[in-house]
Amino acid sequence: MSSTQDNSSAQVSQDQALETKEWLDALEAVVDREGPARAHELIEKLIDLARRSGAHIPFSPNTAYVNTIPPGLEPAHPGNLALEERIRSYIRWNAMAMVVRANRETPPDGGGLGGHIASFASLATMIGCGQNHFWHAETEDHGGDMVFFQGHSSPGIYARAFMEGRISEDQLNNFRQEVDGKGLPSYPHPKLMPEFWQFPTVSMGLGPLMAIYQARFLKYLHARGIADTSGRKVWVFLGDGEMDEPESLGAIGLAAREKLDNLIFIVNCNLQRLDGPVRGNGKIIQELEGTFRGAGWNVLKLIWGGYWDPLLARDKEGILRKVMEETVDGEYQAYKANDGAYVREHFFGKHPKLLEMVSRMSDEDIWRLNRGGHDPHKVYAAFDAATKHEGQPTVILAKTIKGYGMGHVGQAKNPSHQQKSLDLDAVREFRDRFNIPVPDDKLEELPYFKPADDSPEMQYLHARRKALGGYLPKRRTKADEQLTVPTLEAFKPMLEPTAEGREISTTQAFVRFLNTLLRDKQVGPRAVPILADESRTFGMEGLFRQIGIYAPEGQKYTPVDKDQVMYYRETANGQLLQEGINEQGAFSSWIAAATSYSNNNRIMIPFFIYYSMFGFQRFGDLAWAAGDMKARGFVLGGTAGRTTLNGEGLQHEDGHSHIQSSLIPNCVSYDPTFAHEVAVIMQHGLKRMVQDQEDVYYYVTLMNENYAQPGLVEGDEEGILRGMYKFKSVAEDAKLRVQLMGSGTILREVIAAQELLEKDWGIGSDVWSVTSFTELRRNGLDCEREALLNPEGKDLPVPYVTAQLAKTDGPIVVSTDYVKAFGDQIRPFVPKDRTFKVLGTDGFGRSDYRFKLREHFEVDRHFVVLAALRALAEEGKVPFSKASEAIAKYGINPSKANPQHA
After folding, report:
1. pLDDT recorded at residue 1
2. Within 10 Å of residue 709's Cβ, how many Cβ atoms?
3. Distant-in-sequence, close-in-space partners of 745: CB < 8 Å, separation ≥ 6
4. Which of 132, 194, 537, 852 is deepest in the core (most CB within 10 A)?
5. Number of Cβ within a 10 Å radius of residue 639
6. pTM of this prediction?
């Protein structure tokens, strides 16, 4: 290349550099004069023009690895920083002391209590900032903010409540020791501390999912005019490792789509999960920024503390920023697990100019370079910006140190999460680090520290919470309002027999029940139907036009079925929540409505009807959380049972949801067969949950199989609610008699078997409609326990099922559309001298006609007859040959595959 060409290239490069500087200077001038928003608008227009002109500008959701809010735009911190730091230090100490003291004694069984110190240690500054300046308690003028605390940070929340006088020292001493009734649960549990914790946030991943739908429900209440929620925020503390749970990110698109600017996520990016780094070879903050920004969230990165500001200001060539970008999280973790000399060598040593930049700084100065989540100025700025942002949910990605302040044994070490014990040297180091006034001769005792009530710290702590309306967390146990539900008579059409030739399903019966409720002037507006995209399956599409589908922006299009009576109607104040193909999201909406009495002081009546084929297990963890939160409402399994949904077989088609629901103590479960049973059960449920404000929720299974409805016989109400009642008796004078029990759709097979037993075999029987094997078992267990603890007691209660069957004769045969364990629940309470047979649908689900499925699973009328004859033979009342005759008569194949293994 000639010298002329060299000079020409150099000139071009120089011109381009000058041109670049001119553009950057112009942009800086816009930022200075008109602000960042105007600069952003210009840049977007330039990018749009460049793309339309053919330039390839690949999308990147990431910004530089620095704080989103520059120092010049940070608001002044309004608090007394010195007092806040001291309060924070005392809380850190008490949280640590509580966990370590709980693990010093080895119990007789050798099992320790466990506990976590490191998570709160990394969160203390942010939680303190929220408590002092942002989180409103419920008052007459403010509905209160909701705060989902990171589950493993509970020791710090207890420690603050101790300072506030809301938790006693005796309770701290019983951390994780709850059996005697004076301890504290390991994690947030409203069930165990009903006036304290609002939300359970463990299992991990459930907190962010539930929080999104709580924030959306606040908007829903406001749009429908039920409550003014305009000033309320939902704050959610999450771990960066927790964000790998699918539920954590599963609904962030909904939050952006519905512009939930009342929602603030704070992801505690301490770079560590339980076993090691979250992204040792990458950068979790950058990854999460891309995910959230791509989903439409406002992202605030809080990475570097104020001690970095002078270095970043001097970084004119961008070398420091480049090294920050290139350094991976595994390295960042190591820096805070070592010391300043290590950071000088391994971080600043990556470039000679960086070593020069810090050459006048001591190792202590370098060690003092802090992370954003531990800087109260930076935290306040981020929180302040988040509360003022409109039109989008906000996520704050806050970089912290796992086990901050735990010294050589715990800070940023891989085992930090499980750290629950500290030796005396580590305790001394912790005390000195946070300047706790505990003398050396008391360190071994690990005393809690609480300043005098008249001290500046205590006065400041109480004053800040008084200014924000009161203390948090705090939970309301009852709503102030009183609602009266319709009487059973209001649902009279469901209680009467269907007209000649008329058939309906229990799903249709439920829809009638819901429509009747919606017409009630007092409680109708409080009903919240929630569907996961199956409205037409359940015959509920009429609700689209009747009450409208909630959509914050209304309906911007003309639906294709507008010419039909039941067209798809979205409206800004719609009552129905249509969640799409999303059972977990729909159930989270249900939880928000089901806990509204507590969180919003408004009683709501949610009805979540889902396609039971996909299984209770889809939201099973959330169902437990609902129990923990003392939710109130109805969950309805549509087209339930393993054989009702012919043609739609799934490997786990529902034959087990009642087993799963039975595990949750405050979930009341029913499997009704008839419309009148549905009406009696649900009206009583309304009374318990809405009128009496009892902390239970109902799981009711429904079928889409049409048949004639017999209507309610007066006096059967008690049996329906308690779990069983005699539905029909035949051949009272027969020499042989059996008791036939069934539930749901299979009760009709049991009724048919009753007819066959009389017609073909001359055997009389009683048919029992068992609306709830689960409630019968619970009653039996209560009676059994009473007897166990009162061995010499008289007039002990008798299980309801025992009392009912004791009045009858003959063996007992149960058949249901669920696995055998469902009907087998009552076996311990069957009279001891009676043979007990259970038929059920164990095995993989599959598709076919209903009658074929019931034959396959051996729960149909013929197998009920066969089981009855076999039971009579075992009791010596008929020869075993009678059972063989039945096999031949009904064409049962004795060589057919066992459905359990088929």
Report:
1. 52
2. 25
3. 641, 643, 644, 673, 703, 705, 817
4. 132
5. 25
6. 0.95
